[in-house]
Structure formats: structure tokens, C-alpha cells
Design a protein that fits this description.
It is built from 8 helices and 5 strands. The chain has 184 residues and is of the alpha/beta class. Helix 1 links the parallel strand 1 and strand 2.
């Protein structure tokens, strides 16, 4: 998906957004499109990937065929995330999707390297995930040399995580009426 620009002028800036396919990253992608549209900027959706076991593990046991499969999977995940977010409709902004090899936080900061860039990141994962993996959002807000916009977790994501926990612990759903009520 290339995206289009409403006129033939060069984009005024860049909006870099981290995309993983999670609900949080899709919310960030939609917000990034709105910011790009508002400012006339180019949109750079970025999916960062690493070899299985990380770079250190790959250096110990390199396997080029496996690396090619992981890279192709990353390309497909970005295409799927863009298709999910836009349902094959042009978002109406110039767009240059990027798949980069590296940790998400440092990769996003490296790409959003201009002072007039806007870096958009979503918040996803709970406390356990943040203990297992470094927070991309925290890294970007500490290290970026440009403005960083953090998009809160979608309410749907919170509700799905709550339902998943209740299901995992075999708790009845009828004792969680706030989840069963229609939101509106």
C-alpha cells in the first residue's frame, strides 16, 4: 500500500510510527495517519524485527535460511497490519512502510532522527510483559531527538486481556458485568 498525497508537493515532515500488529500499535497507526494528514507529513510505518534468540544468539549460530524466513514473516506482518488498519482503503497520506532489523525502541529512534519528525508509539502489554521485554515507549520517550506521541492502550485491548485472564483462571464471566455491558 503506497498511500497518496492530495497534491504534488513534497511532504512537509515525517510521522514515524511503530507497528507490530497489536491493538496498541494499530491505534498508534490510526493516530499517526491523523497527524500526517493534519500536518501534510509523510507516514513511515515501521516494523522492527530480530532473529530468533536475538542478535547475539544469531551470531553464535547463524542460519541464513532461517533469517530469510523471519525477514519474510516481518514483511508479511507489516502488510497484514496495514491491511487490518486500512481495510485496503488508501489512508490519503504519502506512506513509505519500512521493515528494519533491530530492537523496536532503538530502531524507531534511529529512523525518527530529524528534529521535525514526530514519533508515534502505542502502549501495549501489561506489567509482566514489561518485565520480560524492555518498554519500547519508555525507550523512545527517553532517547528520541524529536517529539514523541504515546497513544494509550485501546479500551478494547484492556477488555480482551481481562476476559483472557478470567477465562484462564476459569472465573465466570457473569461476575464481571462491566465487561458484558455495551459500551457507548
Amino acid at each position: 500500500m503506497n498511500g497518496s498525497h492530495l497534491n504534488d508537493e513534497r511532504p512537509l515532515g515525517r510521522v514515524v510510527v511503530g507497528v507490530s500488529g497489536s491493538l496498541g500499535s494499530l491505534a498508534a497507526l490510526h493516530r499517526a495517519v491523523a497527524e500526517a494528514r493534519r500536518t501534510g507529513a509523510e507516514l513511515l510505518p515501521v516494523l522492527a524485527w530480530e532473529p530468533p534468540g536475538g542478535e547475539l544468539g544469531y551470531r553464535r549460530s547463524p542460519c541464513p535460511p532461517l533469517l530469510a524466513v523471519v525477514r519474510d514473516d516481518a514483511d508479511q506482518r507489516l502488510r497484514d497490519a496495514l491491511d487490518t488498519a486500512f481495510a485496503a482503503v488508501d489512508p490519503g497520506v504519502p506512506m513509505q512502510p519500512l521493515v528494519v532489523r533491530g530492537e523496536p525502541g532503538p530502531s524507531l529512534v534511529h529512523i525518527a532522527d530529524r528534529p521535525d519528525d514526530l514519533l508515534v508509539v502505542g502502549r501495549s502489554g501489561g506489567p509482566l510483559r514489561r518485565r520480560l521485554r524492555p518498554s519500547v515507549t519508555a525507550h523512545c520517550t527517553r532517547k528520541a531527538g524529536c517529539a514523541v506521541l504515546t497513544v494509550p492502550r485501546p479500551e478494547l485491548q484492556h477488555d480482551l486481556e481481562t476476559l483472557h485472564r478470567r477465562n484462564h483462571w476459569h472465573l465466570p464471566l457473569d461476575s464481571a458485568p462491566e465487561l458484558l455491558r455495551t459500551k457507548g
